[in-house]
C-alpha cells in the first residue's frame, strides 16, 4: 500500500511539473506570437504611413492629401501623423466611412470625399471650425447631422447625387458664410427651411429632386444669384418669386409648370431662364431674327420667351375681363 501510494504521488508530481512546464512554454509561445503580431502591425503602419506621405503634395502653400482610384475602404489611424493637412482630396477610392478622428484635423480647409461609397457623416465633423468646403457628392449618404452647423467657416456644401437625402437640419441655417449649396439628385420634396435662413446663400442646385412647389417664403433667400431647379415636379411658382431682385439665373426646365407669373417681368437682374419642357398653357412663338447668328444663339425658352409669354398672358387676361364686364347688348323687339 505504501509503495503504491508513493508511486501514485510521484506520478502526480511529475504530471503537475510537466503541466506547469507546458503551460510556461505555451505562454512564452503566445507572448512571442503577440510580439510578432505587434511588430508586424508596426511595420504595416509604417509602410502605410510612408504610402500616405507619398500622396501629400503642396499647392499654393497648402498641404494636400490626394488619392484617386485606389482601394481605401477605411482610413488608417496613422493618418493622424499628418495632422497638419489642410486639404483632403480622396476620389473613387471605395471609401465607406469617414473616420471619427476626422475632428482632430483642425487645419482642414477643404474636405473633398466625392465619388466614394460613404453612407454616413460622423458628428465629429462639427469640430472642423476652419473648414470652408465640404464636398460629399456621389456617395450613399442618407442624412445630414446637425453638427455640421458648428463648421462656422463653411462656404461650400455639396451633397449631390446621394439619392436618398430628403431634408437638412434646421440648425444649418446658422451657417452665416455658406454661399454655395448643391443638393441635386436626392429626394427633397420641398426647399429645406434651413436654406431659407442662410443670409449669404448665392448659388443653389436642387435639380433632379421631387419638388412640387416653391414655398411662399422663397424670397427670404434674398441674396440668391443662381438657382437650378430642373427635372422636378413643380407645377406653380409663388408670386413672391418676383421679390428675388438679385436673381440672375433661374433654370426650371422639365417641370410641370402651366403658367409663368406676371410678377417675373419685374425681375430686372434676370439674365438667363429656361422654361423648356414644361406643359405651358399658352403657345408662344418668338418672332424670327434677321441675323442668323443671333437666331442660333437665341434661347427659345429663355428670357425673351418669358417676357413674350407674360405679355400674351396679360393680354388674354384683359380680353377675358373685358368680355366679362361688357355683356352683349339686349335686342329690343319693338
UniProtKB/TrEMBL annotation:
Keyword Aminoacyl-tRNA synthetase assigned: no
Protein location: Cytoplasm, Myofibril, Sarcomere, M line
InterPro entries reported for this sequence: Leu-rich_rpt, Leu-rich_rpt_typical-subtyp, LRR_dom_sf, LRR_domain-containing, LRR_R13L4/SHOC2-like
Keywords for this protein: Cytoplasm, Leucine-rich repeat, Muscle protein, Repeat
CC annotations in GO: M band
SMART domains reported in the protein's UniProt record: LRR_TYP
Alphabetical list of Gene3D superfamilies matching this protein: Ribonuclease Inhibitor
Coiled-coil stretches: none
Disease resistance R13L4/SHOC-2-like LRR domain mapped to chain residues: 78-185
UniProt function note: Component of the sarcomeric M-band which plays a role in myocyte response to biomechanical stress. May regulate expression of other M-band proteins via an SRF-dependent pathway. Important for normal contractile function in heart.
Family annotation (PANTHER family): LEUCINE RICH REPEAT CONTAINING 39, PTHR48051
Record's protein name: Leucine-rich repeat-containing protein 39
Lineage: Eukaryota, Metazoa, Chordata, Craniata, Vertebrata
Amino acid at each position: 500500500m505504501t509503495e503504491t501510494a508513493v508511486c501514485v504521488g510521484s506520478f502526480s508530481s511529475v504530471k503537475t511539473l510537466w503541466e506547469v512546464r507546458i503551460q510556461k512554454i505555451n505562454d512564452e509561445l503566445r507572448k512571442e506570437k503577440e510580439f510578432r503580431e505587434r511588430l508586424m502591425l508596426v511595420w504595416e503602419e509604417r509602410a502605410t504611413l510612408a504610402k500616405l506621405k507619398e500622396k501629400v503634395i503642396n499647392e499654393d502653400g497648402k498641404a494636400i492629401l490626394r488619392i484617386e482610384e485606389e482601394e481605401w475602404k477605411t482610413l488608417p489611424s496613422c493618418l493622424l501623423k499628418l495632422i497638419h493637412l489642410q486639404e483632403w482630396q480622396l476620389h473613387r477610392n471605395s471609401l465607406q466611412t469617414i473616420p471619427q478622428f476626422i475632428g482632430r484635423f483642425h487645419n482642414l480647409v477643404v474636405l473633398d470625399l466625392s465619388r466614394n461609397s460613404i453612407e454616413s457623416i460622423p458628428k465629429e465633423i462639427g469640430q472642423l471650425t476652419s473648414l470652408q468646403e465640404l464636398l460629399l457628392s456621389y456617395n450613399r449618404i442618407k442624412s445630414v447631422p446637425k453638427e455640421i452647423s458648428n463648421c462656422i467657416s463653411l462656404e461650400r456644401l455639396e451633397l449631390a447625387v446621394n439619392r436618398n437625402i430628403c431634408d437638412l437640419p434646421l440648425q444649418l441655417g446658422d451657417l452665416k458664410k455658406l454661399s454655395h449649396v448643391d443638393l441635386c439628385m436626392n429626394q427633397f420634396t420641398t426647399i429645406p427651411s434651413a436654406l431659407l435662413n442662410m443670409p449669404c446663400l448665392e448659388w443653389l442646385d436642387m435639380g433632379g429632386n421631387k419638388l412640387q412647389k416653391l414655398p411662399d417664403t422663397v424670397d427670404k433667400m434674398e441674396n440668391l444669384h443662381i438657382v437650378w431647379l430642373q427635372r422636378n415636379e413643380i407645377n406653380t411658382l409663388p408670386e413672391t418669386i418676383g421679390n428675388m431682385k438679385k436673381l440672375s439665373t433661374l433654370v426650371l426646365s422639365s417641370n410641370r409648370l402651366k403658367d409663368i407669373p406676371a410678377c417675373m417681368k419685374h425681375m430686372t437682374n434676370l439674365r438667363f431662364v429656361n422654361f423648356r419642357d414644361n406643359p405651358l398653357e399658352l403657345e408662344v412663338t418668338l418672332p424670327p431674327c434677321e441675323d442668323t447668328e443671333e437666331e442660333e444663339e437665341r434661347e427659345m425658352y429663355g428670357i425673351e420667351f418669358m417676357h413674350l409669354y407674360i405679355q400674351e398672358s396679360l393680354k388674354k387676361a384683359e380680353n377675358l375681363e373685358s368680355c366679362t364686364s361688357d355683356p352683349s347688348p339686349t335686342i329690343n323687339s319693338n
